[in-house]
Specification:
The structure holds two protein chains of two kinds.
Chain A (H helix, E strand, L loop, with lengths): L4 E4 L4 E4 H18 L4 H10 L4 H25 L5 H28 L2 H36 L17 H6 L6 E4 L4 E5 H18 L4 H12 L3 H25 L5 H24 L2 H28 L2 H41 L1
Helix pairs in contact in A: 1-2, 1-3, 1-10, 1-12, 2-3, 2-12, 3-9, 3-10, 4-7, 4-9, 5-11, 7-8, 8-9, 10-12, 11-12
Chain B lengths: L2 H18 L11 H5 L10 H12 L1 H29 L12
Classes of the chains: A mainly alpha, B mainly alpha.
């Protein structure tokens, strides 16, 4: 496969161009579908295949910027971007990221910041995953049962109350000024609540050194009350901003390998188009379930990485990277196959109607 | 997304980037300063690779502007290009109804 090897002048290595396009494609599908940047997939992938870590992060951020333009445009076309909410999220997140980075600076002076960040990462990823799976497998069936009025299982237990969503509770807090988000179907919510939520998500992303897409997307759904598809599109708009900032700041530090970023973007552009289109065919809860599975894999991979840090056995680090790459390839296959099956069904339906 | 929105968003990104990026050499305790001086060996390079390496070695600010612009322009071009291809394949999308 040497004929596909290209020289990457800035990183100073030879790299297989097909591998770059494939990594870009996978993260493009996942990014477009889940509304995340996907740095937690690309960075270990590039690192395992020979990139120095700092070049892996910088190159990843550069391609994320280009990819999120593709995905945001497509989501916008589908009516999935709430611009007003997106702009507010950017403003509050920037302040949160700064606060998060200040906490890191403080912790750096006091002790083992790496370990604290990794444990926070593990708790957040696995906690979010468990919460979303609980919502899918326990809460949703109960709500559907109550909504249909049948409630056969409820006879054995105490009658279930209709649960009030967390977002609905937050909407009831009336601290002026109140603001509405018609695109997301939110009639009235306190601006302070929205700013506070995005400040916290920004703080977490600044603290953990990640783009924050995987934190913002569930926050938009469960705390702000956006429909899942709009949460995905609006989150990508924020990723576009953080990607632009990351691309510039890492390039100025000399840590972006532009040739690799361009090839990854080629794969990611196609992948993002497919990922965004798949949102059309999969229900909101389906997206949430797949997202929960994906972040569970990511959480387990960070646990293994932590074991590597504690034991110093290098094989654990490789296992962690391979797990995250394997999970992303698997998830990409699931999303693409679902997309093609549903698109084929739709085409057949259309042709039957026309006959 | 309209072209106006894209331009406005990019301008917004640039302004914020400049505002928050005023001292890129001053990272944590100055540890990054030496690595910022990294130079690419141009001995065996030619063509585009040589041009990129020269730009990287001689003008880091221009390199970062070129990288950011290339990503923005390529991203926008690919957004329209791949959209066109998918439309030809019958996978065009318009506004969707949001189903939970």
């Amino acid at each position: 496969m040497d004929i596909f090897n290209i020289t990457l002048p800035v990183a100073g290595i030879e790299f297989n161009v097909l591998l770059l396009i494939l990594i870009g494609f996978c993260v493009g599908v996942l990014g477009g579908f889940f509304g995340v940047g996907g740095a937690w997939i690309v960075t270990p992938a590039l690192n395992i295949f020979g990139f120095h870590m700092s070049y892996a992060i910088g190159t990843d951020l550069a391609h994320i910027f280009g990819k999120s333009i593709v995905a945001t445009r497509k989501h916008s076309k589908m009516g999935n971007v709430d611009w007003k909410l997106g702009v507010i999220s950017i403003g509050a997140s920037v302040l949160g990221v700064e606060a998060g980075s200040q906490i890191i600076m403080f912790l750096e002076k006091t002790g083992d910041v790496g370990s604290i960040v990794r444990w926070s990462y593990i708790i957040l990823l696995l906690g979010l995953s468990i919460f979303m799976m609980y919502d899918y497998f326990i809460v949703r069936p109960q709500q559907l049962e109550l909504a249909s009025g049948s409630a056969p299982k409820a006879k054995k237990h105490k009658p279930r109350k209709q649960r009030v969503r967390l977002s609905t509770r937050l909407h009831k807090i009336k601290i002026p000024p109140m603001i509405s988000f018609p695109t997301s179907g939110i009639e009235s919510v306190s601006l302070w609540i929205v700013l506070f939520i995005f400040f916290i998500t920004g703080l977490l992303s600044g603290f953990m050194g990640v783009g924050g897409g995987f934190i913002r997307m569930p926050a938009l759904v469960y705390l702000i009350g956006c429909p899942t598809a709009i949460a995905v599109g609006t989150d990508l708009m924020s990723v576009l901003f953080s990607g632009a900032y990351g691309c510039f700041t890492y390039a100025i530090k000399g840590r972006v390998e532009i040739i690799a970023a361009v090839f990854m973007l080629m794969g990611a552009a196609i992948g993002a188009q497919l990922g965004v289109t798949a949102v059309k065919y999969i229900r909101g809860y389906g997206i949430r379930l797949l997202f929960a599975v994906m972040i569970a894999f990511a959480g387990v991979s960070v646990v293994i990485e932590q074991i590597y840090k504690m034991t110093g056995i290098p094989v654990y680090s490789s296992i962690a990277g391979i797990l995250v790459i394997g999970a992303s390839v698997l998830m990409t296959s699931v999303i693409c196959s679902k997309l093609f099956i549903e698109a084929r069904k739709e085409r057949q339906l259309k042709s039957n109607v026309s006959v | 997304m309209s072209v106006k929105k894209i331009i406005a968003l990019l301008l917004f990104c640039i302004v914020i980037t400049c505002a928050f990026n005023n001292s890129y050499a001053g990272d944590v305790g100055g540890k990054e300063v030496t690595s910022l001086d990294h130079k690419v060996d141009t001995k065996n390079l030619s063509g585009v690779n040589l041009w990129i390496a020269d730009l990287y070695n001689n003008d880091r600010l221009m390199y970062s502007i070129v990288v950011t612009l290339v990503m923005a322009i390529l991203g926008t071009t690919m957004a329209f290009g791949t959209d066109l291809i998918l439309k030809m394949l019958g996978m065009d999308v318009t506004k969707i109804s949001h189903r939970e």
